[in-house]
From TrEMBL:
GO terms for cellular component: protein-DNA complex. Belongs to the LysR transcriptional regulatory family. It comes from the Bacteria. It holds the Pfam family LysR_substrate. Residues 5-62 form the HTH lysR-type domain. This is LysR family transcriptional regulator. It comes from Aquimarina brevivitae. GO terms for molecular function: DNA binding; DNA-binding transcription factor activity. Keywords: DNA-binding, Transcription, Transcription regulation. InterPro entries: LysR_HTH_N, LysR_subst-bd, WH-like_DNA-bd_sf, WH_DNA-bd_sf.
Length: 292
């Protein structure tokens, strides 16, 4: 046949796989739809596998196509990052570290880490993104992140996890709430209040731990609102829509009408852990792990 796979084939395939629509993919690639269809057929012929199921109304990935999409996303991401690292190294730097984190990590761990690293490795660059536990794990598995800060009981095979910070819990209340440092003795005192919690999708371990704090004191909290953002939760508390239980360190950095009281006499703790992939190939990560 004489044809060979080229990088453009992979780019064309991923566009169609993401759009599942040849016209939209062609517009995105700035090529004609017939030309794109021809390139995809050529790719299927070279590989010897059908990648798409086509009919007049729909385009869908075959099992082989879904597998190829997943693997190519990994490969293309790695190529992009490798080229970026190469440029940074050529300029005399030591590369970039991509870090995912939960909001409370920015209050308790990450600033200290960045200061320590900057003193010894000032040319290492950091890319920081706030993400949920599950999204961090997924991104690390796909080599889209090098390091994550999560609240998880365990991680998948092939990943490492190390506890880096243990926090207490505090209750967030409207600033004019009758409870204060002097009269707050137990979480039971807010048993009849509405609760605003981080969504279980954001961190199932954290959500379950909050529920256990209440259930250990003899009640199940009435959860009326959930969010994945601390700012949203605190704004709802400020508005008088309920109370929230959060890691104590999360109280810093917000200028809202909310007060925080540490929850006494409970065994539960909010444990923040660092996670990374065992076979991560980013040489800069080795430097960072010395400080973890």
């Amino acid at each position: 046949m004489g044809y060979q796979l080229e990088l453009r084939h992979f780019t064309y395939f991923l566009a169609v796989a993401e759009e599942l629509h040849f016209r939209k993919a062609a517009e995105r690639l700035y090529i004609s739809q017939p030309g794109l269809s021809r390139q995809i057929r050529q790719m299927e012929e070279i590989i010897g596998a059908s990648l798409f199921i086509r009919n007049k109304r729909n385009v869908a990935l075959t099992t082989a196509g879904a597998y190829l999409k997943k693997e190519l996303e990994f490969v293309m991401n790695h190529i992009d990052f490798t080229l970026k690292q190469t440029k940074l190294l050529d300029a005399g730097g030591e590369g970039e570290i991509r870090v995912g984190f939960l909001g409370s990590a920015m209050q308790s761990v990450i600033p200290t880490l960045l200061i320590k690293v900057d003193k010894e490795y000032p040319s290492i660059q950091f890319s920081l993104e706030e993400l949920s536990n599950n999204l961090q794990v997924e991104a690390i598995q796909k080599d889209q992140l090098d390091l994550g800060f999560v609240r998880l009981a365990r991680v998948p095979d092939g990943m490492e996890m190390k506890s880096v910070f243990t926090d207490t819990f505090s209750i967030a209340l409207p600033i004019d709430h009758h409870l204060n440092q002097e009269n707050f003795k137990s979480i039971e005192q807010v048993a009849k209040e509405n609760f605003i919690l981080f969504s279980s999708d954001y961190s199932s371990l954290y959500y379950d731990k909050i529920m256990s704090i209440c259930e250990d004191k003899g009640f199940t909290p009435r959860v009326t609102h959930k969010s994945v953002h601390a700012q949203t939760i605190f704004k709802l508390v400020e508005s008088g829509l309920g109370v929230a239980i959060v890691p104590t360190s999360l109280q810093h950095g917000f200028n809202l009408g909310v007060k925080f009281l540490e929850v006494p006499n409970i065994p539960q703790r909010a444990i923040l852990s660092a996670i990374w992939k065992k076979d991560n190939r980013n040489p800069a990560l080795e430097h960072i792990l010395r400080f973890i």
